[in-house]
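To the wet lab folks,

You asked to see what we're planning to order before we commit. Fair enough. Below is the target structure as tokens, and below that is the sequence we designed to fit it. If anything looks off to you, flag it before the synthesis order goes out.
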């Protein structure tokens, strides 16, 4: 399959979460207009995305939920799953661990890193914390492929460089600092201030 656009991958993730809730409610099929309503998009967009991954439904019953979950999971996940590290064990890093652990069977947080010795060699929600100086060794021995950066702005660049050097394949950056990484590393950046200001702008227009 050809590389899927980033925005489509984002929507596929949301589709899976939505239909998992439908499945938990004992439902077995869902129509494109129902799925679109849950995500506040158009049914046309839903159908285009699912056609892109080769998934079709029927006019009478819509999409079979189990098959849709399996299809999306086959695209997004890997058979063995991926292991994740959180760098920065402040309030944000701890929140990531508490929220994400156990939510996805194919994404497991297995390590955290910090510079505060009060946190080193302690477990947070079952995740061990190591000193940042041990990052390269732990990334390799634990076969970690994804790093979540939750450190102050002034530390973000150095942390990203350490992750790249250790062989990480993907970085989710939650620091306000915009990063530069090699093409071999996928970078996703989330700027909370920009997102909040976007909401503020559109809210004043309502």
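Sequence we intend to order:
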């Amino acid at each position: 399959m050809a590389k899927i656009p980033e925005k489509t991958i984002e929507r596929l993730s949301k589709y899976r979460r939505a239909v998992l809730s439908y499945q938990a409610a004992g439902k077995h099929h869902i129509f494109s207009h129902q799925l679109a309503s849950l995500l506040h998009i158009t049914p046309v967009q839903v159908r285009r995305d699912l056609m892109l991954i080769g998934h079709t439904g029927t006019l009478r019953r819509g999409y079979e939920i189990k098959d849709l979950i399996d299809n999306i999971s086959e695209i997004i996940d890997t058979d063995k799953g991926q292991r994740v590290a959180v760098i920065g064990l402040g309030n944000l890093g701890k929140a990531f661990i508490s929220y994400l652990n156990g939510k996805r069977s194919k994404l497991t947080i297995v390590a955290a890193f910090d510079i505060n010795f009060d946190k080193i060699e302690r477990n947070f929600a079952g995740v061990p914390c190591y000193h940042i100086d041990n990052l390269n060794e732990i990334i390799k021995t634990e076969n970690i492929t994804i790093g979540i950066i939750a450190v102050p702005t002034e530390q973000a660049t150095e942390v990203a460089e350490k992750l790249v050097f250790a062989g990480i394949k993907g970085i989710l950056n939650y620091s306000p600092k915009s990063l530069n990484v090699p093409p071999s590393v996928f970078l996703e950046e989330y700027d909370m201030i920009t997102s909040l200001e976007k909401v503020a702008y559109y809210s004043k227009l309502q």
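Structural context that might help your review: The radius of gyration is 19 Å. The chain has eight helices and nine strands.

Thanks,
Computational group
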